[in-house]
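Lab channel / #folding
Pinned by the channel admin:
"Please post every new chain as: sequence first, then the structure tokens as a reply. Keep commentary short and put observations after the output so the thread stays searchable."

First post following the new format, from NK:
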Amino acid sequence: MSAVAVILRDLIGLAGAASITYGAWLLHPAAGFIVGGAFALLAAIAGAVANASADQTTGNEDAA
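Reply from TO:
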């Protein structure tokens, strides 16, 4: 996959998350913060899992 396609995919995902967060905020401002925080937490977990799996496939156990 080309770098442009990866960046475009990530931007579309970010726009979707921002739209959902904004929609929740329109219903109730506190809900927007809760949804935004949940998206941030899920992104952090997904990044950690991806990093751990990349370290495991390269045999780099000292990367933690």
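NK: The chain has one domain: 3-57.
TO: also worth noting, The mean pLDDT is 89.
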